From TrEMBL:
Reaction equation(s) it catalyzes: D-xylose + NADP(+) = D-xylono-1,5-lactone + NADPH + H(+)
Domain GFO/IDH/MocA-like oxidoreductase: 162-288
Pfam family membership, one: GFO_IDH_MocA_C3
Protein name as it appears in the record: D-xylose 1-dehydrogenase (NADP(+), D-xylono-1,5-lactone-forming)
GO molecular function: D-xylose 1-dehydrogenase (NADP+) activity; nucleotide binding
Membership in a protein family: Belongs to the Gfo/Idh/MocA family.
EC number: 1.1.1.179
Length: 383
């Protein structure tokens, strides 16, 4: 049977849009996918020159690079370079929009796309605040359109493998959780207008990197078969300020899953995180350790409980689940979007709206309790 093919419109020509389009152009069979396929039919930028440059660059992909498969096999054949985003939303050839703009533009871009009748995959963090997210979800429901936050990590081979371990029950009940995504970002070398620094673009560690300790909290604790708490809350949080632009240099917060365990989540722009352990779930029978990087981990470890020789896990083991070769790791989420649209779903079971709302709610608490310039910022929906 021919694969279900989804036709993408891409919003913005920055770093992540480049990686996403790269992956749409890779041969799906390289990741053993044959039921869905992708086409890129329009690219929108604030300038038509930038959109054209983006298209031309992909068309000139050298033969020995993985996206050349898509260039030769019609994925990019009729792509249009547009000088406004609206032209992409209004294009009747487009089935789904990928939003790859800075954080604080996600709401407006997604809203415009849904209003024009398009399905949307929107980069993380979904929105600036929960009020904006609630409005987008209501609009998707009203328009009967698919909407998903692009938390690509949830679709990686490792995430499925870890889920199997948790479902097997062999680790027992979770007792303690820690997750971190930190990097030594050269903030002092960047202009204050850089998206990681500018409060107007949602700069700082929390909104950019916070989604990754959160994704592991959601996959390892929230979706753990032992968890019954549907609305885990932040108990306390702390942020320090990067004084040049008044955004958070780091954010730390503690989440409570009632009746189960607490999770400590960290993100830091001023210091690199531990390479061996980016997320650790300590359970009754043993520990589950996710190796760095948290956004695209390819290995996890299971350790016996250090102080207990009667536990059921006797030996350390390491499990490797690589991303398919030639792939940045974003094609898996694109495949999910295609399958959901094919199956007429409005949301993905693996990245449901309720779970985006939980994480967005944590960010609201951490951000509005903190001392930064983004603390008092409100999304458009609440104005
Ligand atoms: N899933 C993942 O692994 C990653 C996700 N991201 C997410 O993707 C989003 C974009 O990040 P990234 O690609 O690194 O950012 P970039 O700065 O590289 O690109 C953002 C693009 O957005 C467009 N844009 C529209 N308005 C503005 C504005 N006012 N200022 C700057 N750019 C604007 C520009 O494209 P144009 O001029 O063509 O309109 C620009 O190139 C963020 O929300 C981030 O969280 C980022 C990195 C990794
Ligand atoms: O989503 C992301 O993942 C990788 C990081 O380097 C980047 O800052 C972030 O936006």
């Amino acid at each position: 049977m021919a694969p279900f093919t989804i036709r993408w419109g891409i919003i913005s020509t920055g770093g992540i849009s480049t990686k996403f389009v790269h992956d749409l152009l890779v041969d799906p069979s390289s990741r053993e996918v044959s039921d869905v396929a992708h086409k890129v039919v329009a690219v929108g930028s604030r300038s038509v020159e930038s959109a054209q440059k983006f298209v031309d660059k992909f068309k000139a992909t050298p033969d020995d690079e993985s996206p050349s498969w898509g260039i030769k096999n019609g994925v990019f054949d009729r792509v249009k370079a547009r000088g406004t985003y609206q032209e992409v939303y209004d294009d009747p050839d487009v089935d789904a929009i990928y939003v790859g703009t800075p954080h604080t533009l996600h709401y407006e871009n997604t809203k415009d796309a849904l209003t024009a009748g398009k399905n949307v995959l929107c980069e993380k963090p979904f929105t600036l605040d929960s009020a904006e997210l609630d409005e987008l979800i209501a609009l998707a429901k009203e328009k009967n359109l698919f909407l998903m936050e692009a938390v690509w990590t949830r679709y990686h081979p490792l995430a499925y493998a870890v889920e199997e371990v948790l479902k097997s029950g062999k680790l027992g009940k979770p007792k303690r959780f820690t997750a971190d995504f930190s990097m030594d970002f050269p903030m002092d070398d960047k202009p204050t207008s850089h998206r990681m620094l500018d409060p107007v673009l949602g700069g700082g560690a929390l909104l950019d990197m916070g989604p990754y300790p959160s994704v592991w909290a959601m996959l390892l604790v929230h979706r753990n078969p032992y968890n019954k708490d549907t609305d885990p809350k932040v108990l306390t949080s702390y942020q320090t300020v990067y004084e040049r632009t008044n955004v958070d240099l780091n954010s730390r917060w503690l989440v409570d899953w009632k009746g189960l365990c607490q999770g400590q989540l960290l993100t830091d722009l001023g210091s690199a995180g531990l390479r061996e352990a980016t997320a650790v779930l300590q359970c009754e029978e043993g520990d589950l350790i996710i190796e760095y990087p948290p956004y695209c981990s390819e290995a996890f470890q299971i350790h016996p409980r250090p102080e207990r020789d009667l536990g059921t896990i006797k030996e350390k083991s390491r499990h490797v689940h690589p991303i398919a070769k030639g792939n940045n790791g974003m094609s898996y989420e694109a495949d999910e979007v295609a399958r959901c649209i094919r199956d007429k779903k409005l949301e993905s079971d693996r990245m449901p709206w309720t779970e985006s709302k939980i994480v967005q709610g944590w960010f609201d608490v951490v951000r509005t309790s903190g001392p930064t310039a983004t603390a008092t910022m409100k999304g458009h929906a609440s104005k």
